[in-house]
Amino acid sequence: MNYPTYIELPFTAEHNAPIGADNCDQYPESLVRYFLENYTKEGDCVFDPFLGFGTTAFVAEDMARIPYGVEADGERFEWAAGQLENWRNIKHGDAADIGAYDFPQMDFCITSPPYMLCEDTWNSLYGGDPDYEGYDVYLARMAVIFKTIAKVMKKDALVIVQADNLQGQRYTPLVHDFYQQISKSLTPQAEIIVRWTGAKSIHHRDYELTHCLVFKKS
Fold first, then answer.
1. CA 145/CA 167 separation, integer angstroms
2. How far apart are CA 103 and CA 215, in angstroms?
3. Residues 184, 145, 205, 212: what is their CA dihedral angle, to the nearest 10 degrees?
4. Given the DSSP bridges, would you call strands 66-71 and 153-163 parallel, antiparallel or unpaired?
5. Can you tell me the distance from the alpha carbon of 7 to that of 21, in angstroms, rounded to the nearest whole number?
6. What are phi and psi of 160, to 5 degrees?
7. What does the alpha-carbon distance between residue 104 and residue 218 come to, in Å, rounded to a whole number?
8. 7 by DSSP, 3-state: which?
9. Are 132 and 123 a contacting pair, CB within 8 Å?
10. What's this model's pTM, rounded to 2 decimal places?
11. Could you confirm whether domain 6-216 is CATH 3.30.70.100?
12. What's the sign of the alpha-carbon dihedral 186, 191, 193, 194?
């Protein structure tokens, strides 16, 4: 299968997060729609293990795909599930526990995991538990999560992971680090650079470009 190396998409939120919510990690519907149009068909099971405010699930339903997902944050889970026709397919819990939810085998996965700066100690994948601080622990947990994700994907199914490199006090090569961890369980296929166009309705996105890593379940 051939993949483009560069695409342009509008950055406009169509399903806005609830008023006052922090949606700084929400990607636009255009990103999900592009991949579903090109790499899925109607009736496919579409999975997002870091569901957030439900962008992937909303687009999947709009396009006659069947959404499944996991979200650790209770408020985000309730807000997204409350607006979905397939709300029973959305689980409140840890993405590392996917095997406990009796999901079907998935045709496609697109997600954006919680980010972490390499200089930070607070680890979102453990809910900030001080026993699991640090970037190395975060990356190791990411590897575990994607090993679990691989088990619920059909053979040859694609997994798309959206990520940005981060500039804090130090530079965090998050795209490279995600690639290294996820490729332990899934076969790398491509990296697609996405340039955002138009006005950005999600306040934090001052990056003009983002990266989509493409993996396959072998």
1. 25
2. 20
3. 40
4. unpaired
5. 29
6. -105, 125
7. 18
8. strand
9. yes
10. 0.94
11. no
12. negative
In the chain, the N- to C-terminal Cα span, in Å, equals: 14
Copy the structure tokens of residue 57. Answer: 């699930």
Q: What percent of the chain has pLDDT over 90?
A: 85
Cα–Cα dist 160/36, whole Å = 11
Q: Mean per-residue pLDDT for 159-164?
A: 98
Show the tokens assigned to 6. Answer: 């560069």
H or E element in which residue 53 lies: none
* Residue count of the chain: 218
The residues facing 197 across adjacent strands are 10
The owner of tokens 């940005």 is: 164
Cα 66 vs. chain centroid, distance in angstroms?
Answer: 16
Token pair of 188, please? 């790398």
pLDDT in tens, 25-66: 579 999 999 999 999 999 999 999 999 999 999 999 999 999
Residues 181 and 117: beta-carbon distance below 8 Å: no
